[in-house]
Design brief:
Blueprint (H helix, E strand, L loop, with lengths): L5 E11 L2 H11 L3 E6 L2 E5 L8 E5 L4 E9 L2 H13 L3 E8 L7 E6 L5 E6 L16 E9 L2 H10 L4 E5 L3 E5 L7 E5 L4 E8 L3 H13 L6 E5 L6 E6 L5 E6 L34 H6 L11 H4 L2
Parallel strand pairs: 1-4, 5-8, 9-12, 13-16
Antiparallel strand pairs: 1-5, 2-3, 3-4, 6-7, 7-8, 9-13, 10-11, 11-12, 14-15, 15-16
The structure holds fe (ii) ion.
């Protein structure tokens, strides 16, 4: 296994215009649990070991405030902080003790495109975690829209130490551990959030979890199906604020011996968008939502704290 400075994707921060509604959706429908409150921020955990996978902030509109990763040492934070400026990004806050409930130390940067990323070390984890059927276990991956996918891909590889696992015509799949991808970059003509995927314990949980979301009035926007790169099962939904969120499972596990493929390999037979050939075409609503959510400005009040 490659020696990755970043060991995992951990959590995301959403800014939402109706905090109570967001909390209710992610708790009662999506299947997370409130684990902490700090000021006005609500922290929700999944069933896995991460302190939280989602932090909800009151915000004027639906925006991503940050995506968090865990690094293997504090030295890695220093190296990222040094490299980010030279690569055209920006240090928002140097490595500091984290005042939020997950603790440890945290470094906050903006990539050249304005993606706000946080890097944690020594953050709290649960030792007594236990997976639960049909409930999310952890974050699986973030999919980011890119105006210049090759430049963004270079930043993730050169500055953050990710490895390119596969490259389809429209997407670059990047890994930082044995999961086939933790970050996916989409060639979209804009910079922003495409979607966030939550890992389910297994395929049955994707199905049962999806049933729970449909029962709550949120139809599947794309899926259920099995993706090409990563071979993972997927079901996509749109949350009450327009964030596209995915249940996934069975993500391909890879190591240094994995043979990466390019766009000429990742081609679907006509009419197909998944391995099984059962996923109906993606709805127009989801296509639109996948381009609609941006990151908060790195200099805005909400994004600049901590
Ligand atoms: Fe995905």
């Amino acid at each position: 296994m490659g020696d990755f400075p970043i060991t995992a994707i951990r959590s995301v921060e959403f800014g939402v215009p109706d905090l109570a509604r967001a909390e209710a959706f992610y708790k009662e429908t999506w299947g997370l649990r409130v684990c902490a409150r700090y000021g006005e921020v609500v922290y929700l955990r999944a069933t896995g070991s991460d302190h939280h996978v989602l932090a909800l902030h009151p915000h004027s509109s639906a925006e991503v405030l940050s995506v968090s990763f865990r690094v293997k040492s504090e030295e890695c934070l220093g190296r990222i902080a040094e490299a980010v400026g030279q690569a055209g990004g920006r240090l928002i806050a140097p490595t500091l003790s984290n005042p939020e409930p997950d603790g440890g130390v945290v470094l906050k940067i903006a990539t050249p495109e304005g993606f706000i990323l946080r890097f944690h070390h020594g953050d709290a984890i649960y030792h007594d975690w236990k997976e639960q059927a049909s409930m999310p276990l952890r974050i699986s991956h973030v999919n980011l829209n890119c105006n210049n996918i090759e430049a963004t891909s270079r930043f993730f590889q050169d500055v953050l130490g990710f490895a390119l696992t596969d490259r389809s015509r429209a997407m670059a799949f990047l890994r930082c551990n044995s999961d086939h991808h933790a970050v996916v970059l989409a060639d979209s003509g804009v910079d922003g959030l495409n979607h966030i995927a939550f890992m389910m314990p297994e395929w049955e949980s994707v199905m049962r979890g999806s049933g729970r979301i449909i029962d709550a009035g949120f139809p599947i926007g794309w899926g259920v199906g099995r993706h090409g790169p990563g071979n993972n099962i997927f079901a996509y939904f749109i949350d009450p604020f327009g964030f596209v969120i995915e249940f996934t499972a069975e993500v391909l596990q890879v190591d240094d011996g994995y043979v990466s493929h390019g766009p000429e390999y990742w081609v679907w037979p006509r009419g197909r968008t998944d391995h099984w050939g059962i996923a109906p075409p993606k709805t127009e609503n989801v296509k639109k939502a996948q381009l609609a959510i941006r990151f908060a400005s790195p200099i805005s009040k909400d994004a600049a704290q901590g």
